[in-house]
Amino acid sequence: MDTNILTNNGIDINTGLELLGDMEMYNETLNDFISESETRIPDIKKYFEEKDMPNYAILVHAMKSDSKYLGFQHLAELSYNHEMASKENNIEYVTANIEELLGEADRIITVVKEYLGL
Predict the structure, then answer these.
(1) What Rg do the C-alpha atoms of the chain give, in angstroms?
(2) CA angle 113-72-98, nearest 5°?
(3) 18-70, pLDDT tens digit by residue?
(4) How crowded is the C-beta side of 51, counted as CA atoms within 13 Å?
(5) Euclidean distance between CA atoms 76 and 17, whole angstroms
(6) Which is nearest to 60 in space by CA: 73, 74, 43?
(7) What is the spatial distance between Cα 74 and Cα 10, in angstroms, rounded to a whole number?
């Protein structure tokens, strides 16, 4: 697997390696991220549409944590902003910025799938 696919797309694999130890564990965790995203992303959209900020906050918090572990800095930052806003029930912020969050999540998922050969 060519790690340049990740690094050229702004993914800091060194952060992931510091936390996860080696490439084998890092790659397993990337696979887990992809699997979880298959339900997490639709659920984020669902809770957003339902204006269910408590459950939305739980999911963006999980995405933030995974993103930090895996070196997805921009996605981690966006997720954190959404987590804080949703905990404050700031639907205006979430509404104004959800497309950026989902776009970055989609970009990361696409890059990781390419890297993993999925």
Answers:
(1) 14
(2) 90
(3) 999 999 999 999 999 999 999 999 999 999 999 999 999 999 999 999 999 99
(4) 4
(5) 17
(6) 43
(7) 8
